[in-house]
Design a protein that fits this description.
Length: 477
Amino acid sequence: MSSKPDPKTIIVSNRLPVKVVRNEEGLDFQPTEGGLATGLGSIYKSGNNVWIGWPGATLESKAEEKTTLEILTSQSMYPVFLTDEDLELYYEGFSNETLWPNFHYFNQYSIFNEDTWESYKQVNQKFADAILSQANKNDTIWVHDYQLLLVPALLRQKKPDLKIGFFLHIPFPSYESFRILPFRREILLGMLGADFLGFHTYDDTRHFLSSVNRLAGIGNNHGIINYNNRQIMADSLPMGIDYDKYHSTASLPETLQKEVEYRTAIGSPKVMLSIDRLDYSKGIPQRVKAFEKFLEQYPEYQQKVSLVMIVVPSRYQVGKYKELKEEIDLLVGRINGCFGRLSWTPVHYFFRSYPLHSLSAFYRIAHVGFVSPLRDGMNLVAKEFIASKLEKKGVLILSEMAGASKELSEAILVNPNNQKQMVEAIKEALEMEEEEQIARLSVMQETLKRYNIYHWVDLFMNRLDHVKNQQLAQKTK
Ligand code: GDG
């Protein structure tokens, strides 16, 4: 008698939650504990579940690939090996120079190129093949993000009954932006291979449904799409954070030690904080310019407040990112040169990343969290800042253009393009009474505690199950 294997869940993302690093002794495997890795950790590590993705480095020989495969499979991961050319064309090219700018409304930065599109299709096929090599009929597949938009349909073609979920971590743009893409229809049909499609916000879902309707001629009924005799659902599902982790890290001895160290070194009575990857969507120059204007307009705040700005290196091979770095360097130099004193640095700027307890110490010393992206799918930094405020004191300035603003309405909400409003928001934040700070933060903490990352994962899986059950019910009618 043949026994059927237990159904498993396969998580798929461009990057695995581990990074291969080459050192003198050979290959080293370091965990990359992002929000997604934490939230999905309990899933992929249990039973025979697996996480499929690129291990973060190109490998130089078959022997290196073999070692990587062995080590990763023993940790419930399965690698997709990419070549330097794949990375240049599929990742830096189509993903980050075509889709990323288009989805963030930076169409002037979008490059349309047949070669990068071909590579995107090929690499999506590579991912689909890797998944198919691991997937059985009753398995659940959860595909993540804009690098893998074609994967759901590639899987569906080969295994029509698979249960496939897809989550987009960045905004889905309005039809007017999306329709600019030359390969727009193929992309939509790729996504429609999924049974359930999740987005951070209601607007992202609405934009997706509108494009499906107008570009593929497929309508919907309150997010339910009927396509190829299959019921598909699209819905908004804002991603949460591991609230308890950020809350408890904020009281660790090493965090508190760093906090004292940073507070003393910065010296300024008040601290504003921003943390982002180097990215033009994050509105970093606009934020620095608003701070400059603030110091000019309200000189009484000079020597009283500093902006601590952490910019984490990212996608440095992509031309626009290099230009952005140069722009930020110049701006920070200008402000510090113009306003700085021996005893006071207006902008403390760090182009590097930090371990979690240092990040937590920065969240702790900040009176104001200054999160002002021009466009952001969600923005987890805003949520982590709130979760780290054990005494409930602190003010969040948050861009309306971040998905997080839909949940965190007690923040001071700003349009990052409106400099005057940003300047006034800084003043309001610095002058807010403690009682009001506590009232606002308490509400936001309650929201984030309840709608945490584990809740998000459960909700996603429940929705996916629900759609699949509806499909079965429809079939048996
Ligand atoms: C994409 C979407 C969406 C940052 N610096 C350090 C560090 N970080 C961590 C933060 C946070 C994460 O990186 C950044 O997350 P964001 O949400 O702010 O932004 P993206 O990287 O652009 O993420 C975004 C997200 O996907 C999830 O769906 O919210 O809109 O663009 O967790 O804490 N972590 C450490 N050291 C650092 O220096 N350890």
